[in-house]
Amino acid sequence: MTLTTFEKNRNAVNLLWRQNIRNAREISQITGVPLRSCERYVSSLKKNGKIIVHQSSGRPRKLTPRKRRHIGKIVKRNHFTTAGEMKEEKNSELEVSERTIRRELKNLGFASVLPRRVPLLTQKSKREPIGVGQ
């Protein structure tokens, strides 16, 4: 079984830790592992004496990075496109629910906003000319 890059990074940090190199910045410069990852590994080594790996379910993501970019492009092309319209688009490869599309739009930094409600005109305001009463 081959090691993943994460496992290689953890092994490299562990090796340097055992060689008594305790500075995350120094470990990062030597190994090329991102500084934030080194800081997290060093913190875990200080607390527990080992690097703790958090388990994930292993379930694949519904939206690939390519499909995420596709959603972003659709919105940039037309800001008024709804999640339902994106899902129903003919040549779209999006085979996910509207809720998933909305969640991804939020993650991309787009906001879904309902139009402001404007009260209907009263009979009095229909008779008065604009600007009167202010």
Automatic annotation (TrEMBL):
One of the Pfam families matching this protein, by short name: HTH_Tnp_Tc3_2
A Gene Ontology molecular function term of the record: DNA binding
Source superkingdom: Eukaryota
GO biological-process terms attached to the record: DNA integration; DNA transposition
Domain Transposase Tc1-like: residue ranges: 68-127
Full protein name: Transposase Tc1-like domain-containing protein
Annotated source species: Rhizophagus irregularis
